[in-house]
Q: What sequence folds into this?
């Protein structure tokens, strides 16, 4: 029973950064830009949030500064991928490499193997909710999380509103579905794409903070995102860029990770195979989606992408 | 609009140089700014780097040694990217190839060294091909985007390989996660007290083969055609799905061979850091971009990049700049290389002017 509680609690916790990443990355996806730099931006978010917390002693300020940095990186991505029309996958890859390298480099310069924000006590941020706490099974999983973890679940609703109930959301979707039509009715597609990528960059900073400051309690280690950005992309693809569905996949992947974490005591290293599940799932989802699409399509042969 | 062959050639050379040299210089400038920011002298650092990797006999041999697998992964990327097929899975294919070459190297034995070496290499090639076939079949028959599939399968492969090396294939005697050391009969012999091995010659031979295929062979022509216009290639009656399979198999074989060779000439056992940081496949991508997806360009870029890597790994001993600066420079280089600054149809200025659309 204790194990089940722990698994559920960890699932909620480890899904949070993936959800944040999904909710932000979704916009670029809907605007038809494949942003694989989510991984790198999340890593930078985690690193700088941790670093600034140590340096300034103010978690909120650190969070804002981390957002500024990832936004800058997002703008670099947009500059090369959209304005200069580079291959976005290669641009994204470059940013991922750069993020991994610069954080490792800075750790080396500081002469540390990891960053530990000892002035950040995550237990002070955890909020116990009076009544929910007492629900059997679910209570212990839902209660006792930090505001950021809560926010990531509330954000599903917020991002749904932004996507479907605002002009910005409509524009993003129009640009993604038919760029030329969007341009014909006077939408500045470049600007919309920049904005969509920026939304992703900001939420990647939050995702990184959630990972480093909540999940690990204020520790940054080298390459700590460990493919979560790609898992988020998998969730976005699986959920077809819809806030609710994509988040559900993110939660499922969080559960897989939590199982891998908690079952390793019993299953040994075989639990590691759970980590490979999201990647295999996305391949299967892409296969099914492609088969369905091509069955209804009369287009012959291969197209340039 | 008709150009003479000579002018065409010089135009190509000029753009190729501009599109490759400028990004490299910009990346080095970024590296220099970062080195200066931690209060070290960038010029002294770069100077040390060049002298240790190119003007020092042992360093030069090491540069050649490190370049061997990079030439192969560079070619693996080049043959696919040139055809507008994007195999981002070179990393995973190389790791799998290296891993299983290492298993065969450690557990099979009792045969002549040359034979054992060859068996391991073939194992690596086989694994690379099998792994490349997954995205290839999905692309050729179901039109699934190979870029995403290969990118994702890299992660799946690395999880599975780490699982295997922690479990069944773990060397119990080692104090860390590793597979057993391969037998001596499966290793390439080091020549003249340096790191240089015969693997470099294998790599060069493969390069000549690929050069021949790309320049003289029908496949090279078809790759070119697919790269220029996939729909047109298909419309003229080329069986594109078949070519995609062939190109991916070729790419997987090259990657697998790179991994196996790296295992047998450098690592000798699998550890989670086998492929290095950022990894043979990602290095290959940089190299291919730098070499404009042309075989000769790839070799030049591989040697250049290998010198950079070797120089930087030694630099840690002589200066206080961490070797991670190489990856920083590499990341920036890929970023700058992702854009074609000049193409045949437009110059630098129009790129910026029309960028907004």
A:
């Amino acid at each position: 029973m204790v194990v089940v509680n722990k698994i559920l609690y960890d699932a909620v916790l480890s899904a949070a950064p993936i959800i944040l990443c999904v909710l932000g990355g979704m916009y670029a996806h809907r605007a038809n830009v494949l942003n694989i730099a989510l991984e790198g931006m999340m890593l930078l978010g985690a690193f700088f949030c941790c670093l600034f917390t140590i340096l300034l002693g103010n978690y909120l300020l650190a969070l804002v500064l981390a957002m500024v940095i990832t936004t800058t990186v997002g703008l670099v991505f947009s500059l090369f991928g959209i304005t200069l029309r580079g291959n976005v996958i290669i641009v994204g890859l470059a940013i991922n490499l750069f993020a991994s390298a610069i954080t490792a480099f800075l750790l080396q310069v500081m002469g540390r193997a990891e960053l530990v924000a000892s002035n950040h006590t995550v237990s002070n941020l955890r909020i116990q909710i009076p009544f929910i706490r007492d629900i059997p099974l679910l209570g212990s999983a839902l209660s006792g999380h930090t505001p950021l973890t809560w926010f990531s679940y509330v954000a599903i609703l917020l991002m749904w509103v932004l996507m479907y109930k605002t002009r910005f959301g409509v524009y993003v979707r129009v640009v993604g579905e038919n760029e030329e039509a969007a341009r014909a009715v006077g939408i500045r597609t470049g600007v919309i794409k920049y904005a969509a990528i920026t939304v992703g960059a900001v939420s990647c900073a939050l995702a990184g903070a959630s990972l480093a400051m909540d999940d690990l309690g204020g520790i940054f280690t080298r390459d700590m995102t460990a493919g979560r950005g790609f898992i988020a992309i998998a969730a976005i693809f699986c959920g077809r860029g819809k806030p609710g569905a994509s988040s559900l996949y993110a939660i499922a992947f969080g559960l897989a990770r939590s199982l891998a974490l908690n079952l390793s005591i019993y299953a040994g290293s075989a639990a590691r195979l759970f980590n490979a599940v999201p990647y295999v799932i996305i391949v299967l989802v892409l296969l099914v989606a492609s088969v369905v699409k091509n069955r209804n399509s009369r287009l012959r042969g291969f197209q340039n992408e | 609009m008709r150009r003479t062959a000579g002018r065409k050639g010089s135009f190509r050379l000029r753009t190729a140089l501009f599109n490759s040299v400028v990004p490299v210089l910009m990346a080095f400038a970024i590296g220099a700014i970062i080195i200066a920011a931690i209060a070290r002298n960038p010029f002294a650092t770069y100077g040390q780097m060049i002298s240790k990797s190119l003007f020092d006999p042992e360093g030069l041999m090491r540069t050649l040694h490190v370049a061997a697998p990079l030439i192969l992964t560079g070619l693996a990327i080049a043959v696919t990217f040139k055809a507008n097929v994007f195999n981002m899975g070179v990393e995973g294919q190389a790791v799998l190839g290296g891993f299983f070459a290492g298993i065969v190297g450690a557990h099979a034995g009792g045969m002549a060294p040359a034979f054992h070496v060859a068996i391991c290499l073939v194992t690596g090639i086989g694994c690379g091909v099998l792994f490349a076939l997954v995205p290839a079949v999905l692309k050729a028959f179901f039109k699934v985007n190979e870029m995403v599939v290969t990118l994702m399968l890299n992660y799946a492969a690395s999880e599975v390989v780490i699982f295997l090396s922690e479990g069944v294939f773990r060397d119990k005697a080692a104090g860390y996660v590793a597979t057993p050391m391969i037998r001596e009969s499966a290793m390439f012999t080091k020549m003249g007290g340096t790191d240089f091995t015969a693997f470099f010659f294998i790599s060069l031979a493969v390069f000549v083969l690929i050069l021949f295929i790309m320049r003289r062979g029908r496949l090279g022509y078809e790759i070119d055609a697919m790269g220029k216009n996939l729909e047109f290639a298909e419309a003229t009656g080329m069986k594109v799905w078949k070519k995609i399979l062939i190109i991916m198999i070729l790419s997987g074989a090259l990657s697998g061979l790179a991994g196996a060779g790296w295992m047998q000439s450098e690592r000798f056992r699998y550890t989670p850091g086998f492929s290095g940081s950022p990894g043979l496949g990602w290095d290959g991508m940089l190299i291919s971009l730098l070499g404009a997806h042309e075989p000769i360009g790839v070799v030049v870029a591989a040697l250049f990049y290998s010198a950079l890597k070797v120089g930087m790994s030694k630099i840690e001993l002589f200066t206080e700049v961490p070797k991670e600066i190489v990856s920083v420079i590499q990341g920036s280089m890929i970023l700058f290389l992702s854009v074609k600054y000049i193409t045949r149809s437009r110059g630098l200025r129009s790129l910026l002017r029309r960028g907004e659309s």
About this structure: Chain A has 13 helices and two strands. Chain A touches chain B through 59 residues (CB under 8 Å). The longest strand of chain A covers residues 114-116. The beta strands of chain A are 114-116, 219-221.
